[in-house]
Write the structure tokens for this entry.
Amino acid sequence: SGDNVGGGRSGAISPPPIEDSVQKIDVNPPRGTRDFPPEDMRLRNWLFNHFREVSRSFGFEEVDFPVLESEALFIRKAGEEIRDQLYCFEDRGNRRVALRPELTPSLARLVIQKGKSVSLPLKWFAVGQCWRYERMTRGRRREHYQWNMDIIGVPEVMAEAELISSIVTFFKRVGITASDVGFKVSSRKVLQEVLRCYSIPENLFGKVCVIIDKMEKIPIDEITKELKSLGMSEEAIKDLLQVLSIKSLTKLEEILGAAGEAVADLKQLFSLAEKFGYSEWIQFDASVVRGLAYYTGIVFEGFDREGKLRAICGGGRYDRLLSTFGGDDVPACGFGFGDAVIIELLKEKGLLPELSLQVENIVCALDHYLQGAAAAVATRLREKGQSVDLVLESKPLKWVFKRAARTNAQRLILVGNSEWQRGMVSVKILSSGEQYEIKLDELE
Ligand SMILES: Nc1ccc(Br)nc1
């Protein structure tokens, strides 16, 4: 029946010699990346389930994109860190590609690709791994998972208010309160209106934002130097930094007047926050600009009030992104929420959940020849929706009890000869120790 290939049983051919010398491989994951062994994967699933349940409760649909994208999707000339750390390379087809550093450009690409086949507004969410290539000198991670929610096709500030509401909903679900975290909210239109007063060219807007976003990270004279290199005068820089220090919307209105879009948008957002019931979570802070060049309006970031951690999440309006990719001028806003800072915050607050392995049944044959019977018992329970850890080899009972304890099994089902002859199995409820025999067809 056909040639024996690869040393089948009949006409056995000895397997080829192992040519490659066995060399010990590095069993750690690549620098800056993580494995998720079961206990870490349980926490990750717990977190992502909350992300997904909140998104769905807001009527959003899940989407995803390739981790690998054309490098062109992320080439922006605004001096962003995300560009400097792009994990990019040339593939075997000589194409310039990159591991995505964020999800928003992929989302914009898919919206454009879908074109008229989708009706606006779109409410999409994604949970995806994002990458950066950072010199390991700083020993930081090179990958993280980001939860994104985006609303495409709604120009009103109601969209940003809805997004912030979804994040507040997530925080409440995991036990975080407005005493633990807040949102700093501003609008890039504040910056825009100041720059216009000094006739700073629009094309410098993105670059100025990226520089301003470094305010808390590099010395102020470095900020001033970089702004000067863009051609801003000392007076313009002084006024700009003065406006950016404003923490009150009333004060902002005094400076910019009530007629501008910046003040109108922000007043509308704070009014909607009242209606959504999360006023205590948000505060105006003109210094918030976020580090992505494409934001055009409201921007916000979640922060821990103790000031120990980096930003928990961030987002805003990006009304021009789709058109810069050649798509129609479609308004859009969204946020990114990383999987690292939130876990640090939950640890700080003692809110990490206890997540142990749980299995409902462990099934074990008491003799080797009853393995088939044990398989039948396991299958029957599984068909009834029960989880079963089937002991796959002959093991001493002591071993089985130890495994049942480690897996927090609720029931131990033993398949023994005398019981099986009578169509029975023996059940032990591990929490109470109660033990009884039961007919197989009554087991559930
Ligand atoms: N954009 C980005 C990607 C990966 C990590 Br870790 N941090 C930021």
